[in-house]
């Protein structure tokens, strides 16, 4: 499977395949992962900043008699769970970013180590070792980066979820 992924990206030309793979890694790390991390930070900050205002609005509605005590408790729980959600997602984004960085470091180690093992242990020429281990490294990197990319994209969609639910219940 790893070799198949590598063959798809390389497509017969190792240099072009390696460049395409590097571009995919950069897109995943810089654009998707960093973007989702920034979204999570801003969402968490805005949610926490808005929390006192929401609590005061609930208290004002309760004091005005617009809602009863049970409704106020429900709204307070909703506000608290929304803050917990965004705080947890901010922490998860840090984990996914660390995973992407670790994946890139492991990829570099696999490539350098594989080429060295091919040359020194298996007496391959530098060209043959490079071709074999670039293929395997790119395949392994794709297998590792695709789940990271999917998690980052899914996480970006999760940030919109509570707001869509809020629009349905409170126009």
Automatic annotation (TrEMBL):
Q: Which branch of life, at top level? A: Bacteria
Q: Which InterPro entries match?
A: FHIPEP_CS, T3SS_FHIPEP
A cellular-component GO term for this protein: plasma membrane
* Keywords associated with the record: Membrane, Transmembrane, Transmembrane helix
Q: Which residues cross the membrane?
A: 6-31, 100-120, 132-153
Q: Which Pfam families match?
A: FHIPEP
Q: Which GO terms describe its biological process?
A: bacterial-type flagellum assembly; protein secretion
Q: Does Kinase count among this protein's keywords?
A: no
Family matches, as PROSITE patterns: FHIPEP
Under what name is this protein listed?
A: Flagellar biosynthesis protein FlhA
Highest classification ranks of the organism? Bacteria, Pseudomonadati, Pseudomonadota, Gammaproteobacteria, Enterobacterales
